[in-house]
Design goal:
This protein is α/β, with parallel strands linked by helices. It is built from 10 helices and 7 strands. The longest helix has about 90 residues. It starts with a helix and ends with a strand.
Length: about 300
C-alpha cells in the first residue's frame, strides 16, 4: 500500500501518543514501586517501633519483678534468720564467748582469730605475730599439703580450732550428722600429722547464717551446737570484722591499709574485741595488715590474748 502524507502524519501522532502512554506507564510503575517501598519502610518502621516499645515494657516489668523478687528474698532470709536465732538461743550450750565476756579482769582485751587456713598466707601471719610477741587462734580447714603450717602454728604457741574440713556449706549444713562428719574428718587429719585434737570450733559463715537455715532448717545450727557440746566442743563467734573474708583473690578489693583502719575503728568502741580475720586463699592483704592491726590495738590499750 502506498503511503500518503495523511497516513504518515497519523503514524507520527500515534507514535507520539504511544510514547507518551509508555512514559506515563513507566512513571506509574515507578510511582507505584516508590509507594510500595515507602509503605514497606513505614510498615517496617512501625513494626520496629512497636517491638521496641514491647521490649521497653518488658524491661520495666522485668525490673519490677526483680525488685519484688529481691525484696521477697530479703524478707524470706530475714524470717529464716529470725527463726534461726530463736532456735539457736534456745539450744546453744557451748558458746565460748560467755567465758570471755564474763571475765572479771580489768582492762581491754583483744583476741586475734584467723579462719580458713592454713595456706601460704599463714606464714606471713605467723611471722608478724612472732615479731610482735602475740599469740592468736587459727580456725583451720582440711589441707593435707599444709602439714608444716599446722605444726608451726602449734610450735609457736598458737591455738588451733576446728572450722570443718571442707568449709562447703552445701555439704556441712545438710544435717547435724553431716556437720559432725566433716569436723571428724579434720580431727582425723590432725591426728595423722601427730597433732593434738582441738575442742574449739567455729561455724563457717557464723552460727547464724542464711545458708545453714535454708539448707538444713532454722533449727540446724542450734542442734549442731547441742551435739558438739555433747562431744566436748565449744564454739567462738566474733564481734569485730570488716568483710575481707569475702575476697577470694589478691585483687586488693580490701587493701591492707583499709583492713587495719576499719578493724581499729570498730575495736575502738569495744572493751573486749574478738577479731575475725582470714589467712585462707586469696588473703595476702589480710596477712599484710596484721602488723598495723597489732600496733593499733596496743595503742588503744588492748592486751592481746588467745581464746580460752
Amino acid at each position: 500500500m502506498k503511503s500518503t502524507p495523511g497516513r504518515q502524519k497519523l503514524f507520527v501522532v500515534l507514535s507520539a501518543t504511544a510514547g507518551v502512554l509508555l512514559l506515563a506507564l513507566f512513571a506509574k510503575v515507578a510511582w507505584d514501586s516508590e509507594i510500595a517501598r515507602t509503605s514497606a519502610a513505614n510498615l517496617t518502621e512501625a513494626r520496629l517501633s512497636s517491638l521496641e516499645q514491647k521490649i521497653d515494657d518488658l524491661q520495666h516489668v522485668l525490673a519490677a519483678a526483680q525488685t519484688e523478687n529481691s525484696q521477697l528474698k530479703t524478707q524470706m532470709e530475714g524470717g529464716l534468720l529470725s527463726i534461726q536465732a530463736v532456735y539457736f538461743d534456745t539450744l546453744k550450750r557451748n558458746d565460748g564467748l560467755a567465758s570471755v565476756w564474763n571475765d572479771s579482769r580489768s582492762g581491754r582485751r583483744a583476741f586475734l582469730t584467723f579462719d580458713d587456713g592454713p595456706t601460704e598466707n599463714t606464714g606471713l601471719v605467723l611471722d608478724a605475730l612472732k615479731a610482735a610477741g602475740v599469740k592468736a587462734t587459727f580456725f583451720v580447714n582440711g589441707r593435707p599439703d599444709q602439714g608444716d603450717a599446722y605444726r608451726r602454728i602449734l610450735r609457736e604457741g598458737h591455738r588451733i580450732g576446728n572450722h570443718t574440713y571442707s568449709h562447703d556449706y552445701s555439704q556441712i549444713y545438710q544435717s547435724v550428722d553431716a556437720y559432725i562428719r566433716d569436723t571428724d574428718r579434720l580431727e582425723a587429719l590432725l591426728a595423722s600429722l601427730s597433732l593434738p585434737p582441738t575442742k574449739l570450733y567455729r561455724f563457717p559463715g557464723g552460727a547464724k547464717n542464711e545458708m545453714a537455715a535454708r539448707l538444713g532448717g532454722p533449727a540446724l545450727t542450734g542442734k549442731i551446737s547441742a551435739a558438739m557440746a555433747d562431744r566436748g566442743y565449744r564454739f567462738f563467734e566474733w564481734n569485730v570484722a570488716v568483710g575481707e573474708g569475702e575476697s577470694r583473690t589478691d585483687s586488693q578489693l580490701y587493701s591492707a591499709k583499709d583492713i587495719a583502719a576499719s578493724l581499729l575503728a570498730q575495736a575502738k568502741t569495744k572493751r573486749v574485741a574478738v577479731i575475725l580475720l582470714h589467712d585462707g586463699p586469696g588473703h595476702k592483704q589480710t596477712a599484710l595488715a596484721v602488723p598495723a592491726v597489732i600496733q593499733g590495738l596496743k595503742k588503744l590499750g588492748f592486751t592481746l590474748e588467745q581464746l580460752p
